Amino acid sequence: MDTIARVADVVCMNILLTGATGYIGSAIRPALIASGHTVTALVRASGGEGDVVGDMRDKTLVRRLAEKSDAVIHTATPGDETSADADRDFADAVLSGLDGVFVRTGGIWVYGEGEAITEESPIAAPPIVAWREEVNRRVLGASNVRSVLVEPGVVYGRGGGIPRMLSEELIGDGSQHWATVHVDDLADFYALALERAGRGEKFLAVSGVNPTVRELGEAVSRRKGLGGRVVPEEPGRTVGRLGEFGRALLLDQQASGEKGRRVLGWRPRRRSLVAEIEAGGYDGAPVT
């Protein structure tokens, strides 16, 4: 592993980043560079100077890249039926080669429903993410790396993420809360977790703002000139339309994210999702 340089009170690392061209990773990369780190992205197609073209499922490549890195930040996923196996294989390859920091991405959905979800809440994962817990335990329990698990809520901002689906027709009846985080605040969270989190720690990356889907739909309706009028959807129809993804979107979740503020010194600064919608941040966003 290359020598780690220190600038001021920040340890500057050589970081391997997956998902650098994706929604979350594309925000993380500039945040890491701004903090003084050097970033190499593992990309599936042509990337920037110094990036590596390859597949996260190539265990030999991942192990070799991990051996050359001070840290690995993993945000990529195939997003299909191969996701569980791909994530397990990637984690195993990193753990076999890395001598440094491994920041892994999870998600708040694994806790199921709750009015005050914390990192200590019991796991009650819906089927779409039930496979994550086994990999999370393996990574957090590794003795040869400083492993950290970042568990974002519903990510929004820059016109991307799940909120692209919002319209005046609600997802479910709209009574469910979503724990949210702006993508640029989330990028700051990753940089802080990399630098400050202890071994084996996990953090909910949420702003503490937990709007209902009805509130979000009403904001969309007002933006469209419909006066806040919304149409609820029968939950069974949501699941029929969107499958297990829809079942996860129906989860009623609220969280403060207090641990990230207390331990990492993180302070979310961007406007709320409702304010983002009202300011036109999702105007014209296609329904996905």
Largest sheet, described in full?
7 strands, parallel
Oligomer: single chain
Please give the order of strands in the largest beta sheet. 5-4-3-6-7-9-12
Distance between the termini: 42 Å
The percentage of residues in β strands lies in: 15-25%
**Radius of gyration from CA coordinates:** 19 Å
Structural class given helices, strands, pairing?
A: alpha/beta
Mean pLDDT: 94
The global form is globular
Order of helix and strand elements from N to C terminus: EEEHEEHEHEEHEEEHEHHEHH
Report on this model:
The chain is an alpha/beta fold and 288 residues long. Helix content is 33%, strand content 18%. The protein has helices spanning 25-34, 59-67, 83-97, 132-140, 183-196, 213-223, 235-249, 258-264, 273-278, and strands at residues 5-7, 10-12, 14-18, 38-43, 52-53, 71-74, 101-105, 114-117, 146-152, 154-156, 180-182, 201-205, 253-255. The strands form 4 sheets. The chain has a 7-stranded parallel beta sheet with strand order 5-4-3-6-7-9-12, with helices on both faces. A two-stranded antiparallel sheet has the order 1-2. A two-stranded parallel ribbon has the order 8-13. Helix 1 (25-34) crosses helix 5 and helix 2 (59-67) packs parallel to helix 3.
